[in-house]
Design goal:
mainly alpha, single chain
């Protein structure tokens, strides 16, 4: 991970904490002020969302998408993609660009 990305990631984590920001743990419909479910962080939401997409499970996709704000989910999915490409590149002894293009079915650059 580049130093700039690591710095941004650390800033984001410290700014929003491990709960994933103000959108996680939304209040119940009863208006009691208590969260309807436990709070999920952006990385739990991203992992659940991507796994549900891979399984083509719309109910789980919708559930995970409701755990955090759309912006936080997007950031989490992007971070997951970066980490996955880096891990596969190391495993395959290839560049991250080669792996990313391969995963998307693009020709080698």
């Amino acid at each position: 991970m580049s130093n700039r990305l690591r710095t941004f990631f650390n800033f984001f984590r410290s700014s929003f904490g491990s709960a994933g920001g103000p959108a996680s743990g939304r209040e119940s419909a009863g208006g009691s002020g208590r969260p309807s479910t436990r709070q999920h962080n952006i990385f739990e939401a991203a992992a659940a969302y991507v796994a549900a997409c891979a399984d083509d499970d719309q109910d789980r996709i919708d559930e995970a998408a409701g755990w955090v704000s759309p912006e936080a989910l997007s950031f989490g999915v992007s971070e997951l993609a970066c980490r996955a490409v880096i891990a596969l590149a190391r495993e395959r002894d290839e560049s991250p660009q080669t792996v990313a293009r391969s995963l998307l079915g693009l020709p080698a650059a």
